[in-house]
C-alpha cells in the first residue's frame, strides 16, 4: 500500500483554518505539490497551506519513529534510548550507517528502518495495536504485520492529526510515562538557539522512489510550543532535501523560527552512505 488518502471526520477538522499566503508562495516558488500546517495553541487555529491535503491521511513512514520510540520505551522493549540493538536487516541496506549496532538515539537520527522493525518485533503485534489505539494515532490501523504497517499501510495519518499527536507529546500529556516522552523529545532535537529549540523527523513513504515526503515536529520558544507537519509529493531522491528546506522556510515565514541568512532552497548532495539499496520504504 502506497498512499492512503482519506478526508478526516468533520470533528477532527473542526478547528479554524487560516490559509497563509506567505507559505503558499514558498510552495509555488519550490514547484512542490504539498501541504504545511501548524497548530497555534494560543488561538486554537490551524495555519498553513492547502487545507484539503492537510486533512488527507498518508502512510507516516519514518515519522512514526516518534510513536514507535515512545511505545518501545513505555513497554520496556528497551531500557533506554542508548541501549544498543544489534543489526538484523539486509546485508546491503539503504544506508551503510544502519549496519552498526546502535541505540534509538542514533537510530532516530539516521532513520534506521531495520532497527525500528526489530523494536516493533520486541513490542509485539497486540501490544502495539493497543498502544496505537491509546495514542489515537491517525486511523489506528496496523494490520497483521508488526514490521511494515507504518511503511506500507494500513496505518495512515494526516498532517493535521500529526500536529495534534505532536502537541500532546511535546507537552508530555500522552497516556504513557512522562520519562519516556522526555526521552523521545531529547532524541528528536535537531536544532536550537537562544530561547528556542526545534524537534523534528523526516519521513519518506516508498523511498527511494516516488511517494509522500514528511517533515514533522515542534518548535519551543520560551513556554510556547508550536507543532507542525509538512508533506509533499516526491518524485525521487532529488526532492528529499525539499522537505526540511520548505518546512523551515514556512516556519520562518510565520515567525515561528528565527530567520536565517542565505537562500531558502539550495542544492544538497546526498552523502555516499546513501548509496546502496533497501527493499522497504525509509526516510
Describe the structure.
Helices cover 33% and strands 19% of the residues. The chain contains ten helices and nine strands. It has helices spanning 21-30, 51-54, 65-74, 104-109, 113-123, 125-135, 149-152, 159-170, 178-187, 240-253, and strands spanning 17-19, 34-39, 46-49, 57-58, 157-158, 189-193, 196-204, 211-221, 224-234. Strand 6 (189-193) and strand 7 (196-204) form a beta hairpin. It is globular, with a radius of gyration of 18 Å.
Spatial gap, N to C terminus? 17 Å
Q: In terms of per-residue confidence, which ranges show pLDDT below 50 for 5 or more consecutive residues?
A: 1-13, 262-282
Could you state the order of secondary-structure elements as H and E? Answer: EHEEHEHHHHHEHHEEEEH
For the biggest sheet, the summary is: 7 strands, mixed
Share in helix: 25-40%
The geometry reads as globular
List the helices and strands and how they pair.
Blueprint: E1 17-19, H1 21-30, E2 34-39, E3 46-49, H2 51-54, E4 57-58, H3 65-74, H4 104-109, H5 113-123, H6 125-135, H7 149-152, E5 157-158, H8 159-170, H9 178-187, E6 189-193, E7 196-204, E8 211-221, E9 224-234, H10 240-253
Parallel strand pairs: 1-3
Antiparallel strand pairs: 2-3, 2-9, 4-5, 6-7, 7-8, 8-9
Helix pairs in contact: 1-10, 3-5, 3-9
Observed structural traits:
single chain; 283 residues; globular; disordered C terminus
